[in-house]
Design brief:
Blueprint lengths: L1 E5 L4 H16 L3 E7 L12 E4 L7 H9 L3 H29 L4 E5 L4 H8 L4 E4 L24
Parallel strand pairs: 1-2, 1-4, 2-3, 4-5
Helix pairs in contact: 3-4
Length: 153
């Protein structure tokens, strides 16, 4: 089976997906990582990957730095804007990569909604993987990286 693994360009996410790609390859599958340019620097093993450009006007190191140190509400909003721009860029570039590689299915990091969007667009089966704390879509449970209060009931 030919699998595409899509994740955001953060080192911990890339490393989790790298391990998964290696495990899948050891079981006879073709697995390729789909990475934003610059994220390949976080790879330590010899796994195949395809690159797509970062959002216009942004670099991968800049995006990572801003996400790691959001500094208040405007920093959080900038991180959200960067993530939205990355999702848009992925949606524009990745369908052609998946077509070229004749991918059968997608494994998408839940932190990057474009993985599932592109898979659905191409009518490919996909799996959502949480390699960090899951992002629950219940408004009473805030994302784990924000200090918003939660409902204890």
């Amino acid at each position: 089976m030919r699998l595409a693994l899509i994740c955001p360009p953060y080192p911990s996410h890339v490393q989790v997906f790298e391990v998964l790609a290696s495990a899948l390859r050891s079981r006879g599958h073709e697995a390729v990582l789909i990475l934003q340019e610059g994220a390949e620097a976080f790879l330590s093993k010899d796994v195949p990957y395809e690159l797509f450009p970062p959002p216009h006007g942004r670099s991968t190191p800049q995006i990572i730095q801003q996400a790691a140190n959001p500094r208040g509400l405007f920093g959080v909003l900038r991180t959200v804007a960067n993530a939205a721009a990355a999702t848009d860029t992925l949606c524009r570039h990745v369908p052609e990569i998946l077509r070229k590689r004749t991918v059968n299915a997608v494994i998408a990091d839940e932190m990057e909604p474009a993985g599932g969007l592109v898979a659905r667009y191409l009518r490919l089966p996909y799996l959502s993987l949480a390699c960090a704390l899951p992002l629950e879509r219940d408004e009473r449970i805030p994302p784990p990286y924000l200090d918003w209060p939660y409902a204890a009931d």
